[in-house]
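Sharing a chain and its predicted structure for anyone who wants a worked example. Both blocks are below, sequence first, tokens second.
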Amino acid sequence: MKKTIIISTAMLAFIATPAMADGMGHHCGMHGMLKQADANHDGKTTKSEFMAAATQRAEKRFAHMDANNDGVLDEKDHQAYFDKIDANHDGSISRDEFTAFHKQMRKQRHKQGGKHE
């Protein structure tokens, strides 16, 4: 049970962190996120554009977390994700492991052109 809570917390942090940071680096915060969502570049973000951008980000995050690509997030996916973060494979994620994993993810996104997808 404790491991499931830890895995779920880590996965939620992984999902939320890039979503909150969208646009950072190229643009800042809310302004950057809205500018990226403005599909027709008219300087306004409609609800439709916003929802499309949010859906696209959510689909990419889901695909990233679905380790076995079966269209379902289950214990196997949770375990695969947990194992990626648990660098010393002791069955728990320390603050240092959590921080190191997210630094590595930010570096990978930066190498991909700064996109926070």
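Comments welcome. The helical segments are 2-21, 29-37, 47-65, 75-85, 95-111.
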